[in-house]
Amino acid sequence: MTTDAQPRISTRFTELLGIDHPITQGGMQWVGRAELTSAVSNAGALGTLTALTQPSPDALYEEIQRTKAMTDRPFAVNLTILPTITPPPYDEYCKAIIEGGVGIVETAGNVPGMIYEMLKPHGVKTIHKCTSVRHALTAERMGADVISIDGFECAGHPGEDDIPGLVLIPRTIDALSVPVIASGGFGDGRGLAAALALGADGINMGTRFMATQEAPIHNDIKERIVAQTENDTELIFRSLRNTSRVASNEVSREVVKILADGGQFEDVRELVAGARGRRVYELGDPDLGIWTVGMVQGLITDIPPVAELVQRIVGEAIDTMTKRMSALVIGTA
Question: Which of 3, 89, 148, 158 is the most buried (most CB within 10 A)?
Fold first, then answer.
């Protein structure tokens, strides 16, 4: 829990959502559970539950209540909308969010007009995560209160334009009027300072929060993240135009090879099954399946408690902005 004596950075994002620090935890499949979400929110940032990690809307409602028992601070629920043959009951998940009293929802994937129509009458603030300026503009028109813009460095789906954050973040900020948070490649205070200098109102972190004590994944996977470098990722599904950045391991390299040789999704379906990825986090074997991680792992060197990490990042950002950057400014006569 933060106190007034601790350093804070105030932006439109923190003011809108009632949080202390302009940092949000990404909604990560199998990882965004109550333990991590509550720890991030208690640290003054914005924790996020991942709705579809839960097997049913009722299970999500229970996870919301479990999170509320662990924090009295604002937290969000991530709801990712993807085209599938048998889509989840998104409307029922929305009802669970509303009945659970959650005031912030992060959406991702397809711009969810129907979802917004359900959430907005209940005063829910919405963050839409996207990978291009054109998608950000569409989300803003449909009512998103905040845009989270995901650069090519990110874990998971970076889109098909391959635009890194250094260009994509200011391009998005110039095009929008709503607050923008920068996502993809952020893991320390230098990154937060850089995002703010580019005009962002905060940062989103996924991989960095995986390597914390409260993250509900096997410690061997956390240690693997610390040991890996920025080069240890693979881009799978490139030929299918559904690119995803994942950890480089035996499985992901095999997927890349099969698709590069002309294979189709059916040829890799079993290799990329979500159940296999879940076992990675549960059992700690990084070669059991596909699991997402970003290039920022090259900057991760420890596994701290969440509260320590958040304070460190905020302190580093403030030092960078007030000491290093100000020292570079030369006055004129």
Answer: 148
Measure Cα distances from 192 to 95, 143, 259, 311 in Å.
34, 26, 36, 12
Residue with tokens 């954050």: 165
Domain that holds residue 37: 12-216
Nearest partner of 8 among 253, 214, 202, judged by Cα: 202
What is the mean predicted confidence (pLDDT) over 95-107?
98
203: helix, coil or strand?
strand
pLDDT category of residue 82 using cuts at 50, 70 and 90: confident
What tokens does 194 get?
């850089």
Query: What secondary structure letter does DSSP report for 322?
Result: I
User: What predicted TM-score, i.e. pTM, was given to this entire model?
Assistant: 0.94
Beta strands in 206-295 (DSSP E): 233-236, 244-247
Examine the pLDDT at 31 and tell me if it is beyond 50.
yes
Nearest CA among 160, 157, 152, 209 for reference residue 26: 209
